[in-house]
Amino acid sequence: MITIINDAPENVAAFNAAGDITKEDFENLVIPYVKSKVEQFDELNYLLYLDTDLSNFTMGAWLQDALLGLKNLSKWNRCAIVTDKEGVQNFTDIFSVLMPGEFKSFPKENLYNALYWCENGNEVES
């Protein structure tokens, strides 16, 4: 299931993915919410907190995620993937070279920093 992270900055479409993730999660929640943010801010600042294994994403969910990326390709500004899965972190860092905008991975303990980065483009100073 995907839920909106309600205390995210206004210009960030932030989601928590937990348990099984389906195509309907993207169709009914993610895509409409992202669309409203792009219409409001003319760019996409996106955060996904992965609180589930990638194996819990159905094939339909992966297709919806890919379509979301392609549909808003020119609107990507910043995208943070928050996970402790090293493979996902590495993929995000490699993917950032191929996509417009900035893509960055953060460990789960740095959720606040990831939200701040999505909102402002810089990290909280230690």
Automatic annotation (TrEMBL):
<protein>
    <recommendedName>
        <fullName>STAS/SEC14 domain-containing protein</fullName>
    </recommendedName>
</protein>
<dbReference type="Pfam" id="PF11964">
    <property type="entry name" value="SpoIIAA-like"/>
</dbReference>
<dbReference type="InterPro" id="IPR036513">
    <property type="entry name" value="STAS_dom_sf"/>
</dbReference>
<dbReference type="InterPro" id="IPR021866">
    <property type="entry name" value="SpoIIAA-like"/>
</dbReference>
<dbReference type="InterPro" id="IPR038396">
    <property type="entry name" value="SpoIIAA-like_sf"/>
</dbReference>
